[in-house]
Write a structure and sequence with these properties.
- It contains 15 helices and no strands.
- It is mainly alpha-helical.
- Helix 5 runs antiparallel to helix 6, helix 5 packs parallel to helix 9 and helix 9 runs antiparallel to helix 15.
Length: 330
């Protein structure tokens, strides 16, 4: 698996699940479908995991167990939906849900990167062009590299570490630290929280429809949300649910769940339409997170442009000040 998940990687995962779901709908057995995908996968990195999953299936493991045996190759969200599909006999539907989910994530990531491409190019150009006059007037190559790569390298390092730590396959400690830090970042922090709530609602809906006991469903769905804060909040749910409390009562006592989530869940619980409420919650938080990510992609270039203008103004003023100072001092 790559260190950082790219839009291309997400698109290939979407195609993988789409092919698997389509083959199962067409009447192929799971082993036949995986064998077909293994011989011609959407991407090379999918061949070995599919082969290992096939070996586990032939040894008598269930599909969910076979995929779990691959280690951290699949996020908990995928395993939760696959388990629900296997238990309910609707594995093809679960695969298609995952295909749509990864397709939406890939499209969102591409949009953000596309919106950021031009300002990032301008930032690089501004840094290199800003350092060029000093180098042209007799500066050393070492000084030029310090003014260019020396400025860019720390930003690349911070970006890589944050992106790496945010991946759902990373350790809980890493993700908890990053989640706390991003909580205070405007737009981005809220977008990440809403994505986690969307995953929670989708996993809960699938697991409950598959007949998984509600205490177990909440534990699995919390892990599938990929949010350490939600996992901590739900950790005590199984014991308290068995003691007679309802999920809506427990949600009201936790600050990790916004009123929108708590109220709609409680309404579905009381009216007996919990599956419909969870679908609405998924759609609401998924769409809201997408809108916030789009807003972030629109506003980030404007902030970058402002920073570029300020930096260039300082550099230009400093350059001409240094240039004319000897002349004016005579």
């Amino acid at each position: 698996m790559p260190l950082i998940v790219t839009p291309g990687h997400l698109s290939r995962l979407a195609e993988y699940y789409h092919q698997l779901g389509t083959m199962l709908t067409a009447g192929m057995t799971l082993v036949q479908a995986l064998d077909q995908i293994q011989s011609s996968p959407p991407a090379g990195f999918l061949r070995l995991p599919t082969q290992r999953a096939l070996e586990s299936l032939r040894k008598g493991y269930t599909f969910t167990e076979a995929m779990a045996r691959l280690g951290k190759w699949l996020p908990s969200f995928d395993l939760a939906l696959l388990k629900s599909g296997e238990l309910s006999g609707r594995l093809d539907t679960s695969c298609k849900l995952l295909a749509a989910y990864y397709s939406d994530r890939a499209q969102m990531a591409r949009q953000v990167l596309s919106d950021l491409a031009l300002p990032l190019f301008i930032v690089h150009a501004a840094i290199f062009l800003g350092a060029f006059p000093t180098f042209f007037l007799g500066g050393s190559l070492k000084q030029f590299l310090a003014q260019t790569l020396g400025v860019l390298a720390p930003f690349y390092l911070v970006f890589f570490v944050i992106t790496w730590a945010c991946q759902s396959r990373r350790g809980a400690t890493w993700r908890a630290v990053i989640e706390r830090l991003l909580h205070y970042v405007p737009i981005l922090g809220k977008a990440r929280r809403h994505l986690a709530l969307a995953r929670l609602a989708r996993a809960l809906d699938a697991l409950l429809n598959a007949g998984v006991p509600i205490s177990e469903a909440w534990s699995i769905a919390a892990e599938a949300s990929a949010s350490p804060a939600i996992e901590r909040a739900v950790r005590s749910f199984p014991t308290r649910l068995q003691a007679g409390e309802t999920p809506s009562d427990l949600l009201r006592k936790r600050g990790e769940f916004p009123p929108m989530f708590t109220n709609l869940y409680a309404t579905g619980e009381i009216s007996g339409t919990l599956d419909d409420a969870l679908k609405r919650l998924f759609e609401y938080y998924q769409d809201d997170a997408a809108r916030k990510m789009k807003a972030l992609a629109e506003w980030t270039p404007r902030v970058i442009y402002l920073i570029i203008v300020i930096v260039l103004a300082v550099q230009i003023i400093g350059f001409w000040t240094n240039y004319y100072q000897p002349i004016l001092g005579q």
